[in-house]
Design a protein that fits this description.
Layout: H1 20-30, E1 37-41, H2 44-47, H3 66-74, E2 79-83, H4 84-90, E3 99-102, H5 125-133, E4 138-145, H6 152-168, E5 172-177, H7 190-203, E6 207-210, H8 221-232, E7 236-240, H9 247-259, E8 265-268, H10 270-273, H11 277-293, H12 297-304
């Protein structure tokens, strides 16, 4: 099982001296003391509206936002990522969860063919720090950049400012970076994803969430992901989970991303929360068994199937 000590954490130089201990505490909490991130992505209620939460193949429990917090509380995760308002409504009832506040969002109603994507910052960092001061367990913030959009400069500037401010106050930062827009011919090109990872480390992020590259020329996604993991440098790279698939397929992809592609964890949403509470909790444990404890796929499936329990 990979483990890190507090002394192993490289504290960025933009963390103010009085908040260095806070940064270390937040990094250790988010990675469960392993240096790897298990991010439970709960920001899709804005990004994808209700399509990800109600419909064929989706457990009816997912229609209630509280389902997300029950999973985060009963399951095994690193952080629960969601918009500030959603966290504000539920966090007092779930104080054991590590929260990461998503600072920008947009819906999917306006398609790229109509206009290049822009996801604006929705609230100030001060409002997030006020929630932390009030006792909410906020360990970090997140921000999405659509690289290649004609609005990329605005998003990069907002992200850069937020990273500097968040680090100064001891918070970790995760960037979602997706190449998208009329200038982008192939969103899942391995070199382009590696370029996105490089942008993340240049902006100062602690982790970057990317889409796994599309297999090409006989090379699988894991092998192609090595480029992005290398380009990310000291910024840990994690892959988006994508649409819901069966547990074995998902866990196999995750193992490949970490052990072949060099990913530093995972960022999973729909594959978890579209299931019943019991099944979702078991899947968080199986995902965390691979992410935090280097279980192989068969061992993780035993956790998912309830044959073996996993805690950290």
């Amino acid at each position: 099982m990979p483990t890190i000590t507090r002394d192993d954490i490289r504290i960025p130089c933009d963390v103010m001296p009085e908040f260095k201990e806070d940064y270390v505490e937040n990094y250790m909490a988010a990675t469960q003391g392993t240096g790897r991130l298990m991010l439970f992505a709960c920001d899709q209620k804005t990004e994808h509206l209700n399509a990800d939460f109600y419909g064929e193949g989706i457990d009816i429990a997912d229609s209630d936002p509280q389902h997300l917090f029950e999973i985060g509380s009963q399951g095994t995760i690193g952080v629960l990522a969601a918009q500030r308002g959603l966290i504000a409504h539920y966090a007092e009832d779930y104080p054991n969860i590590n929260y990461l506040v998503k600072m920008n969002s947009k819906t999917n109603l306006v398609k790229t063919a109509q206009e290049d994507p822009y996801s604006p910052q929705l609230y100030s960092l001060e409002s997030v720090l006020d929630m932390r001061e009030a006792g909410i367990n906020i360990v970090g913030i997140g921000y999405t950049i659509y690289l290649g959009s004609e609005f990329e400069a605005s998003m990069m500037q907002e992200a850069g400012d937020l990273i500097a401010q968040a680090h100064a106050n001891g918070l970790i930062v995760v960037l979602w970076i997706y190449p998208r827009g009329k200038a982008v011919a192939n969103e899942k090109d391995a070199d382009l994803i590696a370029g996105a990872a490089g942008v993340a480390v240049c902006l100062g992020a602690d982790f970057v969430k990317v889409n796994p590259p599309k297999p090409v020329d006989g090379k699988g996604a894991g092998e192609l992901l090595k480029r992005a993991s290398s380009a990310a440098g000291r910024c840990g790279l994690v892959c988006a989970g994508g649409s819901t698939v069966d547990a074995k397929t998902f866990l196999t992809q995750l193992w490949d991303q970490i052990h072949v592609g060099g990913a530093c964890g995972n960022a999973t949403g729909r594959n978890i929360h579209q299931r019943s509470l019991d099944e979702a909790v078991r899947l968080t444990k199986a995902i965390s068994a691979i992410t935090f404890a280097d279980y192989d796929v068969e061992e993780a499936l035993e956790v998912f199937n309830g044959i073996e329990d996993f805690t950290i």
